Amino acid sequence: MAMLRGAVTLLGLRGGPAATLAVMLLAVVGGLVVAHLGRRTIGRPSHLAFGLAQETGYGEMFFSVLTVWAAALLVWAAVRWRQVVLTLHLRAGPDARAVSGVLVLLAGGLFATGVVLDLLHRFTDGGFPDALLTALEDGGEIAVMSVLVAFLFAVVACGHRPRPGPRLARLMGVRPAPVIAAPPDVRPGVAVPARAP
Amino acid sequence: MSRPAGGRRRVADAVGVRRGPAAVLLVMLLALVGALVSAYLGHRLAGWPAEPGFRLGREWGYGEVLFAVQVAWAAGLLGWVAVRLRWPVMAAWALGFVVVLVDDRLMLHERAGAWLARSPAPVAGPAIGELVWLAGLALVLGAVLLAAHLRSSPAARAASIVLLLLTVALAGFGVLVDQLHVVVEGRAPHTYLVTAVEEGGELAVLSVIVAYLFAVACDGHRPGHDMAGTRAVAPSGMRQPLPASLTRHPSGPRVR
């Protein structure tokens, strides 16, 4: 539970607009997974496009939309920070490097759902296990991409700057966050834009 | 030139999408709507993209599904606002959006129209039956909305009135442009342009509604209310002061 809380805090999704967006996107993913499982098990909804692995199905299209949004938010971040994106990790400033590190972790999540689950999938031969693994594989990919979009939204629109813990920071090559007592009204991981009073 | 720009700014202020996260969300949604309309025009004019799902107005096409997703998002945000801020009028609006979604997806008005036409009631045909069903639904929902509106605080009423204006714009595309579509269908050569305006306009207005509710739900946006029936408590587009815990981004220090 603490690990999950730490991950959500790192992503800036513990509250505020970015967390709301994450819930909105993940609700769509949940709806797609339920529709896929319903179609495979009881034949409802019957429309072919609800199949998650279906070429140009709703799942594939949603994934494409999320990918374009992620790319656009990355470009926006690059323009605002005047850094040649987060591609040049070692040349980037500490904030951009931390964002880049989190993106690498999320890309690892995409790899895990896209490749590892795909390998497992090859050992199933139809029936409910196949439907379930398709849901986990394709639904997982879309879910990770949704989290990635919400994270970039937190960075671009809400001013979130991830502060990894010491071990993770060493892995990413960024300075860890100072461990100090927080002011009483600070909620870590709540990406909300600062405003003038 | 300055007057329209000022008008646009006032509208953006009232809707809460002039800057901040809601503005970013609106740009994302409108870019998606623009891409869908462009894909539809490409599909009709050049045959690319070839996938029939890009045809706007097609049952279970991508446009229809985006419409359903946005209505569901709007209903969810309204429900959240109703619970969090204790605004009963928003619960009534949420009910309205849910009814629209269920009616649209399950084709309730078509079924009810056909049933009424077969029943002993004096209804001339399915089309009239559909109208009777929709009028009845509007009457019930309108009564619920009015009752909730009158029992709400001035801030909730102001937010509700902005939503009403946006819903009227949505109905403008859904009903008026739809009627124009019916008139020119088969008579004019480029009716797909009317389809693009009708469906694209509906999706665009719905995107504005989602962004507005997003601003109200999680960005502290409270529209100024100098409209009839409400007292002005804040200038238009003002964001109410939020608790300090919500207005400072605490990314720096780690908390023990």
How does the SSE layout of this entry go?
The complex is a heterodimer of chains A (197) and B (256).
Chain A: H1 2-11, H2 16-41, H3 58-81, H4 94-121, H5 127-158, H6 166-172
Chain B: H1 2-15, H2 21-45, H3 62-85, H4 88-105, H5 108-118, H6 126-150, H7 154-184, H8 191-218, H9 244-247
Helix pairs in contact in B: 2-8, 3-4, 3-8, 4-6, 5-6, 7-8
Region (Disordered) (chain B): 227-256
Keywords (chain B): Membrane, Transmembrane, Transmembrane helix
Transmembrane segments (chain B): 21-41, 61-83, 90-108, 128-150, 162-183, 203-221
Précis, in short:
The complex is a heterodimer of chains A (197) and B (256). Chain A is mainly alpha-helical and 197 residues long.
Keywords, please?
heterodimer; A: 197 residues; mainly alpha; 0% strand; B: 256 residues; disordered C terminus; membrane (chain B)
Beta-strand content estimate of chain B: under 5%
How far is the N terminus from the C terminus of chain A?
35 Å
Could you report the average pLDDT of chain B, rounded to the nearest whole number?
A: 84
By secondary-structure content and strand pairing, the structural class of chain A works out as mainly alpha
Give helix and strand order of chain A, one letter per element, not per position: HHHHHH
Taken together, the total number of domains of chain A comes to 1
The largest β sheet of chain A comes out as:
none
Low-confidence stretches of chain A: none
Q: What proportion of the residues of chain A form beta strands (DSSP E)? A: under 5%
Q: What class would the helix/strand composition of chain B place it in?
A: mainly alpha
The count of domains of chain B is 1
Query: Number of DSSP strands of chain B?
Result: 0
Helix content of chain B: over 70%
Helix content of chain A: 55-70%
Helix and strand element order of chain B: HHHHHHHHH
